[in-house]
Amino acid sequence: MFKEDSVFADVRLLAAVSGGGALGALARYGLQTAFPHTAGQFAWATLSVNVSGCLLIGIIAVLIASAPSTHRLVRPFLVTGVLGGYTTFSTYIVDIQRALVAGAPRTALLYGAATLAAALAAGWAGMRIGDGLTSRFGAADARRAGSTVIEAEFTETGVLPDGPAGEPAGDDLTGSQGRAS
Amino acid sequence: MSVVLVVIGAAIGAPLRYITDRLLQGRHDSRFPWGTFGANVAGSALLGFLVALPASHAIQVLLGTGLCGALTTYSTFSYETLVLAKSGARTMAFLNVGASILAGFGAAYCGMAIAQAIQ
């Protein structure tokens, strides 16, 4: 019974990652098609995609982690799926490689360093924004979560339900501690 | 048509990254993000291979933009690096950045070399 449940849940989780990934990749493809570049040129579209994706992951990961009542498929869909499919590491690497092959080492170095620096700065800024939003609006969710536990205590036998608590809502999606996807 | 190919490739690539992450991370007790590292290096190798092939536009879009694009991720790479740095594991954060980029390059060049060798 439990085994069937977890297999079924995993299929839904994989579907959420898959669907989110397709949506994110479409957005990336749209931007890359609208702003194309040749091998030796600065890949502005991919840089914008990666940097904006890092800003969003910072905000969304912090918000979800601070809201234990978030549905368990929200994080795999948005973070692992949409943002994972939207941003790309392979295109970043191969764009640098192609710029080097095309005889534009300055562009390659500048693009490589600018993407890395801007992506880390954007991720950091996103986490700060997420923290700010949580401290402004997060209390409501904490109260909701608290009242759910109290209701459960009344309806059950007065013992804290350990079923849902065994599966932390925020970070169980990667199977590892506090990781994003 | 290209849009459909991107969707198909990404719909496979994203869950492949998730499964890679579960498999690799489950084998290590380390805080180093082996899962994302593995997916990013594998995707870089495949994309390096693809762009060096005389492959059709459809294959490039399906496997390159769709599959490799969704198999690899910059957002999680950046987020995991920042989480490591914030938790005090700065050496590991620097190591993650350096190793991901160096291994990504190595993998992309290997992919390119294989593509050129089989032509």
Structural class of chain B: mainly alpha
**% residues in beta strands of chain A:** under 5%
**Share of helix among residues of chain B?**
over 70%
**Count of DSSP helices of chain A?**
5
Total DSSP helices of chain B = 5
Outline type of chain B: globular
Q: Uncertain segments of chain B of ≥5 residues (pLDDT<50)?
A: none
Task: Summarize the biggest pleated sheet of chain A.
Answer: none
Mean pLDDT of chain A equals 80
Distance between the termini of chain A: 28 Å
Oligomer: heterodimer
- The Cα radius of gyration of chain A reads 20 Å
Features:
heterodimer; A: 181 residues; mainly alpha; 5 helices; disordered C terminus; B: 119 residues
In short:
Chain A is an all-alpha fold and 181 residues long.
Overview of this protein structure:
The complex is a heterodimer of chains A (181) and B (119). Chain A has one domain (4-162). Chain A is built from 5 helices and no strands. Chain A has helices spanning 2-34, 44-65, 74-86, 90-101, 105-155. In chain A, α2 packs parallel to α5 (105-155). The two termini of chain B are 28 Å apart. Chain B is an all-alpha fold. The interface between A and B is large, with 57 and 59 residues.
Chart the SSEs and their pairings:
The complex is a heterodimer of chains A (181) and B (119).
Chain A lengths: L1 H33 L9 H22 L8 H13 L3 H12 L3 H51 L26
Helix pairs in contact in A: 1-3, 2-3, 2-5, 4-5
Chain B lengths: L1 H25 L7 H18 L5 H15 L3 H12 L3 H28 L2
Helix pairs in contact in B: 1-2, 1-3, 2-3, 2-5, 4-5
